[in-house]
Write the structure tokens for this entry.
Amino acid sequence: MVARSARRRPAGVRPAGRRPAHGGAMSVLARTGLAARGMMYGLIGIIAVQIALGSTHRQADRSGALRLVAATPFGSVILWLLVIGFAGLTLWRLSEAAWGAAGADGHKTSRRFVNLCKAVIYGAITWGILKFALGLGAPASSNKQSRDLTATAFKYPGGRYAVAAAGIIIIGAGLYLAYQAYGARFLRDMNMGSASVRTSKVVTWLGRAGGIARGAVFVTVGIFLVVAAVDAKPGQAKGIDSALVTLDHAPLGPWLLGAVAVGLVLFGVFSCCEARWRRV
């Protein structure tokens, strides 16, 4: 009887040896990375707010955020903290892709694939920040990257269709992110048991407002990719910066851009809350 009960485990729980994605060291890497992501989104949001107010010409993307950090007295230290943070985020997502994430559906192939894609993206971001920290040049703006990738795709047969498909996928991802945020589905990955009711409400509000704003940016970027593919003009592809500036030129532009910009700042704060309460 003892031997049998020792072999029993709760449903969905795997042996500790097969769950390095949830170990102590990986938890530290994940939380450090979430805090770094929060800082990045916060900086982009702050720049976007300044654009809405007409007080800056900085680019509201990762490149502009890094330049803003570098201009501060402790810029070099902060840059290296961002390198460490995004490297941790990359390793965490790789671990989840290999061994599964926390939660009942963390072992599903679809979720592992998504985490692998996230790891690739975060790895590229880490490399860009590392080069800037080493003085090897700032990452290209999101606008230039989007135009260059689109132009390269157009050189190959079916390239326009691939760009259009990518745009549709990004639009879908943005709508899904906004839908998830509106429904507060992120709470399934949070462990708020130790938080007060008021704190839980604030974190939920931050996640909703910030997630919807983040989704809106994804949708805008995706729309520009589809337009570039339809018109066969790579120059019409836009990055985050131009997507936000386009919102500024829309009806009620400064107010719309301001709302999205504040939302990005809120998402940055929410990401820092994830660093504290996310289940990893």
The chain has one domain: 24-277.
